[in-house]
Amino acid sequence: MSPEPMWRTHELKDSYDVVVIGGGVHGLATAYYLARLGITDVAVLEAKYVGFGGSGRNTAIVRSNYRTPEGIAFYDLSVKLYEQLAAELEFNVMFSQHGHLTLAHNERGVSGLVERANMNQWLEVDSRVIFPEEIQELVPELNLFGHCRFPILAALYHPPGGIIRHDAVVWAYARGVDRRGGQVHQQTEVTGIEVRGGAVEAVVTNRGRVKTRVVVNATAGYASTISRMAGVPLPIETHPLQACVTEPLKPFLNAVIVSSTLHVYVSQTDRGELVLGAEMDDYASYSLRGTLGFLEGAALHLLELFPCLANVHVLRQWAGLCDMTPDYSPIMGAAPELRGLYMTVGWGTYGFKAGPASGFLMAELIATGKTPPRLEPFALTRFAADRLVGEKAAASVSH
Asked: What sign has the CA pseudo-torsion 85, 87, 90, 94?
């Protein structure tokens, strides 16, 4: 007897109340929370398969220790939603909150961490600066006191941070959409958006034309391409972001480790693999190929922190696409001067950790027509009004 599919396959209807473009965590979460609010005539259109894009190519880190008040409040909501997600969706998403450590290697770095910790604590987010003795208690294998080119002076310790199983999250949201009456359409590529009289009228796909008055652009690295179909330019550049995974090891790493100076971060999965990432590629591209330069640089910098890993084998590497805005913050909300187009884009390297909050708040906006206060700072109009939300200081590395 074949197992029951997690979500059903449907014929594409000729019209929907809402069409969500993008079958990753942002698109699926938006559709799920819309259905929870009673808007069930929703189609999620995915050009490949659920989780093909950034949702299946990230390193699955979840945290809320950001720098700006706007960013901290938003990501704190997302962490809280993630904490309840397994119960909400009746699916084990394997959220492991074993802590997140951002390292400082010089005095200016320590000052930056103190500023972030103070802002976090002011907004009631659990985050504090700790020093080598306490760091060693948390991560004994870290090279704290031996010979090193970049000594570790302190770390921003964020206990609620951790890692999650990214494919489990998108599968659970897709099933949740289906169970509440929405439809998930894979292998359905959007090739055009029809606009008439200053409003969205339909989307054109490889499976036919679909009428709708509401379109949600949740396409990550392809966000600017989709937006241009509706005549709405976005200040976004797409860059590859690479990562790799090692052979399984006996569990030893009980926190996510990040070093902005070394441009490297590492965590250990429940299967024992080390997931290793670095800064995004500095050139704009849609390439999903890994490069030897990334692998050499990331391995070299990881060994500065963990010399004991010198003989560990890398099993595979990959790349995803990051939709970067000038201020390293997302664009969320309604498109100005075009009725019916909504955007949750520009997530860059922060997208997966923001999925639940983005979907929750975007659904509220679409259902009520009123912008939730947590979304207001991230409107597209902030660039023309010079009200940037500068989160580069909290990027540390691209994750």
From this structure: positive
Superfamily of domain 96-163+237-322: D-Amino Acid Oxidase, subunit A, domain 2 (3.30.9.10)
Residue type, 146: G
- For residue 257, what are the β-bridge partners? 101, 266
CATH of 18-59+166-235+327-394 among 1.10.10.10, 3.50.50.60, 3.20.20.140, 1.10.357.10: 3.50.50.60
Are 276 and 245 in contact, with CB atoms under 8 Å apart?
yes
What does the pLDDT read at residue 345? 97
Residues of the chain with CATH 3.50.50.60: 18-59+166-235+327-394
Q: pTM higher than 0.70 for the full model? A: yes
Start-to-end C-alpha separation, the chain:
41
Average predicted confidence (pLDDT) for the chain: 95
Token pair of 215 as six digits:
């379109």
Q: Are 319 and 240 within 8 A, CB to CB?
A: yes
Cβ atoms of 274 and 246 closer than 8 Å? yes
Query: Which DSSP string corresponds to 100-133?
Result: EEEEE-SHHHHHHHHHHHHHHHHTT---EEE-HH
Measured between alpha carbons, how far is 196 from 9 in angstroms, rounded to an integer?
Answer: 31
Give the residue-averaged pLDDT of 193-205.
Answer: 98
Question: CA distances (Å), 263 to each of 102, 181, 302, in order?
Answer: 11, 44, 9
What are the tens digits of pLDDT across the range 89-137? Answer: 999 999 999 999 999 999 999 999 999 999 999 999 999 999 999 999 9
Say what the alpha-carbon torsion angle 308, 314, 320, 324 is, to the nearest 10 degrees.
20
Chain position carrying tokens 């990051």? 322
